[in-house]
Specification:
The chain has 3 helices and 18 strands. The protein is an alpha+beta fold. The longest helix is centred in the first third of the chain and has 42 residues, at 25-66. The termini are far apart.
Length: 409
């Protein structure tokens, strides 16, 4: 075998023909065979890598789609968000919302809803010791935001399970916007003296296993169930912390809006480090962005155009399904939901008596509030707003997101 001594002494890698190198046929065959072997090996490695990637993605997506009882399309979107596709989902949702904005004027379809009458045929099995008085406190009516007021707008209606003869839940409805008057917000008032809160942990948010209070309220715990409502943003978007049952899933951030539940079920709501202290032993607590109401006023800088401080609004200045929770001067909870913007949500909560309030989850998939009456075959749930997308038994079956359940004391 000769040494290659000139630039013309080379072999055509495709045909194997000599271009003047002086290599004999055996040398050429060995070189071509080695290169072909390297190509085949590279193709096999690439195929194995692609197969491994497909299997990994398929297993991850398949596991997400079979977990819990949330709709398949919802679970798919959640999986895409969790795997770096948040921007893609936002573009699609933004486009949809831009073409589905509410019309100006009009009246709510069906008027002001009527709620089921309260009932107390069943003695709560989970009630704690104590004998509350049967005299109930009725929250004051809410002044209508849109004018003129509709019949029954802003008037509280008692509903839900009676707790030892006491009315524990009131609901009312009002139009949150003076321009888009066909929109209707639902508001619920929850008596702290009669109710205790428990945070349930979704099988994806926060995920994990071994929770005492898992991804739904099981039949053994429903006898004292009075109401349940959605939690805050996904943990990777809430810009705060989450702890439950002694586990710190994400560390808390000073200054963030916080919903904290003490061991006795009492709720504290406010700013972490100011209204809620790290030294307080909360049974469970979560954070979700910043307060939207503080000191019975909208927080400074609250704006429909701010898509960073209080969460991206899917399309800018549009109305989307939102929810929020506040606490009044007596320590009672106020929940509000509907198709509204961030300022309207704050206005509704403040009008309902909240001195501090925070935004909870948004998007029609996640916004839901249900009350429960005793039924012959278990609790009978009713939605706060008839057009809330999710089934009224959402919190009675496995789900992906954490939520708050209210039980009789």
């Amino acid at each position: 075998m000769r040494l290659v001594t000139s630039a013309q002494d080379r072999v055509d890698p495709d045909s194997g023909a000599s271009t003047g190198s002086g290599l004999d046929g055996g040398d050429v065959f060995e070189i071509v065979a080695a290169r072909r072997k390297m190509r085949r090996r590279a193709r096999r490695l690439l195929a194995v890598a692609l197969l491994a990637g497909v299997v990994t993605v398929g297993w991850s997506l398949g596991t997400a789609l079979v977990r819990g009882s949330d709709p398949v399309n919802v679970k798919f979107v959640e999986w895409v968000r969790a795997h770096g596709g948040n921007g893609i989902v936002n573009v699609i949702e933004r486009t949809w919302y831009q073409h589905h904005q509410p019309s100006k004027g009009g009246a709510p379809k069906g008027g002001i809803p009527k709620v089921p009458k309260p009932s107390g045929r069943e003695t709560p099995a989970t009630a704690v010791a104590g004998t509350p008085t049967t005299v109930s406190y009725t929250p004051p009516p809410i002044n209508a935001i849109a004018s003129p007021a509709l019949a029954g707008e802003g008037v509280w209606q008692p509903t839900g399970r009676l707790v030892r003869g006491r009315l524990a839940v009131y609901e009312t409805f009002l139009r949150p916007d003076r321009v888009h008057t066909s929109l209707l917000a639902g508001v619920a008032w929850l008596d702290r003296r009669a109710l205790r809160a428990v945070i349930y942990n979704g099988n994806d948010q926060p995920g994990g296993s071994g929770w005492q209070h898992g991804d739904h309220v099981p039949p053994s715990e429903t006898p004292g169930l009075v109401a349940a409502f959605n939690g805050g943003f996904r943990l990777d978007m809430a810009r705060g912390g989450y702890q439950s049952e002694g586990r710190i899933v994400r560390p808390f951030v000073t200054g963030r809006a916080t919903f904290g539940v003490r061991a006795d079920g009492t709720v504290d709501l406010g700013v972490w480090g100011r209204d809620l202290q790290p030294t307080t032993p909360y049974a469970s607590a979560f954070q979700s962005l910043d307060l939207i109401v503080d000191g019975a006023n909208d927080v400074p800088g609250l704006s429909r155009d701010d898509h960073l401080r209080w969460g991206q609004t899917l399309g800018g200045r549009v109305f989307v399904w939102r929810s929020g929770v506040g606490i009044d001067a007596r320590g009672n909870l106020v929940y509000a939901a509907g198709v509204l913007d961030i300022v309207s949500l704050a206005d509704v909560l403040r009008a309902a008596g909240a001195v501090r309030a925070m935004e909870l989850d948004i998007n029609s998939y996640w916004v839901s509030f249900d009350t429960f009456l005793p039924g012959t075959n278990g609790p009978a749930p009713t939605k706060l707003l008839p057009n809330m997308q999710r089934s009224a038994n959402r919190y009675l079956v496995p789900g992906t997101r954490y939520f708050v359940a209210m039980f009789a004391r």
